[in-house]
């Protein structure tokens, strides 16, 4: 009889323990969500103000599904080295050839760097540089034109994850950049004419 009482007691204890644990974890999830939301509001409040003259329209996705959301680069993202501007390392603009040059066949135009930084600030989200300065060999490999602005550091190819390339192009034009859109490949070529 004692064995039966012990088993019943253990079973009751186990059931009560499971119920208490379920109630505890069910109440814990909303608290974490609220804490995360409060932390996000605190971080948002600490960000420097951004001057926006007009609110940006919410990007519309074309019905034919032409917008491809590019992913952010795979980790690790390089965070050391000289900075081109507040959000971009110089290395992001370097020639990505297979060793034909030292990465810098020409210097990047400071005006281009400023305007790409301004573009990034307009969207307040990452802008990914896929091509900056190029050596002649790399330019030929990617099918660039013979006198491409990439060769002299006056051009960059870029995209903003989650923002349609035509919206990025329109904002780049507003900032005074020359733009060639590549909607089929979902990036924009921006340049400074010199």
From TrEMBL:
Gene3D superfamilies named in the record: 3.30.1380.10
Annotated organism of origin: Eubacterium maltosivorans
SUPFAM superfamilies: Hedgehog/DD-peptidase
Keywords: Membrane, Transmembrane, Transmembrane helix
Chain segments annotated as transmembrane: 12-29
Domain Peptidase M15A C-terminal: residue ranges: 87-177
PROSITE patterns in the cross-refs: PROKAR_LIPOPROTEIN
Protein name as catalogued: DUF882 domain-containing protein
């Amino acid at each position: 009889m004692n064995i039966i009482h012990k088993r019943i007691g253990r079973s009751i204890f186990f059931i009560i323990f499971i119920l208490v644990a379920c109630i505890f974890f069910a109440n814990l999830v909303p608290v974490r969500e609220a804490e995360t939301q409060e932390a996000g509001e605190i971080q948002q409040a600490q960000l420097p103000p951004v001057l926006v003259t007009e609110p940006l329209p919410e990007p519309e996705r074309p019905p034919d599904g032409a917008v491809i959301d590019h992913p952010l680069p795979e980790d690790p993202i390089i965070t050391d080295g000289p900075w081109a501007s507040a959000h971009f390392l110089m290395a992001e603009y370097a020639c990505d050839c297979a060793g034909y040059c030292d990465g810098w066949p020409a210097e990047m135009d400071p005006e281009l760097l400023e305007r790409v930084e301004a573009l990034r600030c307009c969207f307040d989200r990452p802008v990914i540089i896929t091509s900056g300065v190029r050596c002649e060999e790399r330019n030929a490999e990617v099918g660039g034109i013979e006198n491409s602005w990439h060769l002299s550091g006056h051009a960059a190819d870029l995209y903003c994850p989650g923002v349609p390339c035509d919206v990025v192009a329109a904002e780049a034009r507003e900032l005074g950049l020359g733009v060639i859109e590549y909607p089929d490949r979902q990036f924009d070529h921006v340049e400074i004419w010199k």
